[in-house]
């Protein structure tokens, strides 16, 4: 097999690649840093002539050119597996929609899709072909192998700046399975900086770090609180930590550079930092590039509760938008206003509790301020109408705010209400007690 000749035979212009997209097609735009650029620009030029084109993607880190055409809703839909701020704005314009999922199931979604829903065209950025004929997916193993496996046409847009991320399976595609190759303009990989930690974040982080033993295996979500946890771990006396996570974030680099990560105590993938995808700053991309300590893997492996539960002392740390007195957690919406998606939160909540010595932590600030300065509680009597239950009350383990940490496992409804109110902002506790009494889940009052 002459892979160099094959490469030249499949090399086309972005304009030629864009011509493969037709009205009625399903077009997959991959995920985060692998979203196409050059071919996207050419498809945008054609879209005004097309109708009912359906794109799939997620966690957009820049605005695609297709979003910028006139009256986009007349020509296409954007179907996101997990939404960023860019995609939230597109919802209001009437052309973006969310695909509910447990992230661990996403590769299977593709493999089980009916003929009318499977991708007609898959387009994504990848690292240049190596000497064996493989294009590495970069920090995006996630579900891309399943996308390629089920797509009728596969188009690789080469980017020399894409980090090469080692894995064990499904971290790249061979040229024999690629239909077209586009050599783009090699744009720099976009950065996603986590929100800076606040005093509240740091207070929550201290409570969580105290629960982490030496040799624990970590999963961190994105945001100020998980980053604050990472910063504290990097400064702590903890040792021999492992990593097995859905998203690889900058905090892991800090912990690793502080010498806290060895993976020596991991029951599986010993010595490897395992992740489904990564997004962060240049520091993160440089660290992942050709680093044999890091293992890029599909989410059907990283997020499978059977994999997670096989790792002792698994510590899962994630955020919430709000929660209620029953212990239901919403991490996806503000009422009917969509924010992000389920991602793998429930996967890790379930898997961590099944782990020997494992714990899951859902953390949030007790309050937030509205645009007009009003203080509102994130702990509610019941979730707002339309809010999504990401973690059911039966699955929630530890809840953490700046006012404390509670473990809900094994508690009756009145015990749960009492525990949850104890970590609410003091200004709202009496109101929550009164609501709990109305709902018949309150047994005693601190006012009596």
UniProtKB/TrEMBL annotation:
Keyword Calcium attributed: no
Known catalytic reactions: butanoate + acetyl-CoA = butanoyl-CoA + acetate
Family of the protein in this entry: Belongs to the acetyl-CoA hydrolase/transferase family. Butyryl-CoA CoA-transferase subfamily.
Biological pathway: Lipid metabolism; butanoate metabolism
Residues annotated as binding CoA: 221-225, 321, 344
Residue ranges occupied by any Acetyl-CoA hydrolase/transferase C-terminal domain in the UniProt entry: 280-436
EC number from the UniProt entry: 2.8.3.-
HAMAP family with a match to the protein in the record: But_acet_CoA_trans (MF_03227), But_CoA_trans (MF_03228)
Protein's name according to its UniProt entry: Butyryl-CoA:acetate CoA-transferase
Role, per record: Coenzyme A-transferase that converts butyryl-CoA to butyrate.
Cross-referenced NCBIfam families: butyr_acet_CoA
PANTHER family in the cross-refs: ACETYL-COA HYDROLASE, ACETYL-COA HYDROLASE-RELATED
Enzyme class: transferase
Sorted UniProt keywords: Fatty acid metabolism, Lipid metabolism, Transferase
Domain Acetyl-CoA hydrolase/transferase N-terminal stretches: 4-186
UniProt-listed InterPro entries: AcetylCoA_hyd_C (IPR026888), AcetylCoA_hyd_C_sf (IPR038460), ActCoA_hydro (IPR046433), ActCoA_hydro_N (IPR003702), Butryl-CoA_acetate_CoA_Tfrase (IPR023990), NagB/RpiA_transferase-like (IPR037171)
Keyword Transferase: yes
Domain of life: Bacteria
Residues annotated as the enzyme's active site: 246
């Amino acid at each position: 097999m002459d892979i160099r000749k094959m490469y030249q035979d499949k090399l086309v212009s972005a304009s030629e690649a864009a011509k493969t997209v037709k009205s009625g097609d399903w077009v997959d735009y991959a995920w985060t840093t692998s979203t196409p650029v050059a071919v996207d620009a050419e498809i945008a030029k054609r879209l005004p002539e097309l109708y009912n084109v359906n794109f799939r993607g997620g966690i957009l880190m820049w605005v695609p050119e297709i979003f910028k055409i006139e009256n986009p809703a007349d020509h296409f839909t954007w179907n996101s597996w997990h939404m960023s701020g860019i995609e939230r704005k597109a919802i209001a314009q009437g052309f973006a929609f969310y695909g509910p999922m447990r992230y661990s199931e996403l590769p299977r979604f593709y493999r089980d899709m009916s003929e009318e829903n499977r991708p007609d065209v898959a387009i994504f950025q990848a690292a240049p072909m190596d000497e064996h004929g493989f294009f590495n997916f970069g920090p995006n193993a996630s579900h891309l192998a399943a996308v390629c496996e089920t797509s009728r046409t596969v188009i690789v847009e080469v980017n020399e700046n894409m980090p090469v991320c080692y894995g064990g399976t499904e971290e790249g595609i061979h040229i024999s399975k690629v239909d077209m190759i586009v050599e783009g303009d090699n744009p720099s990989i976009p950065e996603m900086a986590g929100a800076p930690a606040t005093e509240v974040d740091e207070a929550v982080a201290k409570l969580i770090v105290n629960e982490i033993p030496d040799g624990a295996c970590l999963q961190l979500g994105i945001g100020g609180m998980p980053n604050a946890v990472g910063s504290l771990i990097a400064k702590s006396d903890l040792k021999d930590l492992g990593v097995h996570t859905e998203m690889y974030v900058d905090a892991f680099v800090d912990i690793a550079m502080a010498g806290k990560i060895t993976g020596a105590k991991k029951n599986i993938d010993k010595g490897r930092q395992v992740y489904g995808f990564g997004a962060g700053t240049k520091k993160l991309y440089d660290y992942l590039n050709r680093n044999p300590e890091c293992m890029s893997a599909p989410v059907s492996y990283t997020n499978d509760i059977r994999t997670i539960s096989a790792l002792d002392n698994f510590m899962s740390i994630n955020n919430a938008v709000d929660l209620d007195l029953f212990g239901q957690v919403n991490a996806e919406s503000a009422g009917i206003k969509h924010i992000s998606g389920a991602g793998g939160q429930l996967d890790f909540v379930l898997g961590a509790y099944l782990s020997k010595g494992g714990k899951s932590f859902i953390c949030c600030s007790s309050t937030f301020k509205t645009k007009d300065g009003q203080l509102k509680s994130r702990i509610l009597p019941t979730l707002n109408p339309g809010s999504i239950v990401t973690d059911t009350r039966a699955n929630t383990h530890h809840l953490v705010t700046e006012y404390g940490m509670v473990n809900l496992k094994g508690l009756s409804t009145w015990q749960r209400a009492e525990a949850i109110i104890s970590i609410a902002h003091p200004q709202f506790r009496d109101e929550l007690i009164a609501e709990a009494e109305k709902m018949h889940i309150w047994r005693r009052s601190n006012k009596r």
